[in-house]
Design a protein that fits this description.
single chain; mainly alpha; elongated; 0% strand
Length: 173
């Protein structure tokens, strides 16, 4: 009897924690998008008002942001310094591919970030500023949708975790 109760408690705790993790994924994505917005805002301001090289600009952005976005811009700045003369889009695509494995961005987010990187080094200041503005608008719209979705998802996943735990426990008992 003691083993059954212990097993029930372990199953309930595990499934509830799994539900909490699934519910938190949206919050993690919102955080990553917030850091991206901060980084692109910094980029836009620096492009318009200064003429710093992209390597040092990316290094500054990595120091002023956190999380996966900081890693993205830090790796990009290091790769730009290592591979001077190589196309910036190739560097951006490679670094984005490495970082995407550790982020909570979905494929649409990654496409927008990739398209932002396509104009780096080729477009003039006005076009880069416009491209940054478009990415910021996308991030703001996505964040708004995710905040609305987050409330219902949290309740759903927490309840689902408890219900799955009860179902597994009933099947096993």
């Amino acid at each position: 009897m003691f083993l059954k109760i212990t097993g029930f408690i372990i199953i309930m705790i595990t499934t509830y924690i799994s539900g909490l993790y699934l519910a938190a994924r949206t919050s993690f994505r919102i955080y990553d998008l917030e850091q991206l917005k901060k980084a692109i805002t910094i980029f836009k301001g620096e492009v318009v008002y200064s003429s710093a090289p992209l390597g040092s600009l990316f290094k500054e952005i990595s120091e002023r942001t956190s999380g996966v976005i900081s890693i993205l811009f830090d790796l990009a700045s290091k790769e730009i310094e290592k591979r001077s003369g190589e196309a910036l889009i190739d560097i951006w695509a490679q670094v984005l591919g490495e970082v995407s494995k550790h982020s909570y961005f979905n494929t649409e987010d990654m496409e927008y970030i990739y398209s932002f990187g396509r104009t780096l080094g080729y477009a003039d200041k006005g076009q880069q500023s416009d491209n940054a503005r478009l990415l910021i608008e996308y991030v703001e719209n996505t964040q708004s949708l995710l905040r609305d979705k987050k409330i219902s998802e949290e309740r759903l996943y927490k309840s689902l975790g408890i219900m799955c735990g009860l179902m597994i426990s009933l099947v096993l008992l």
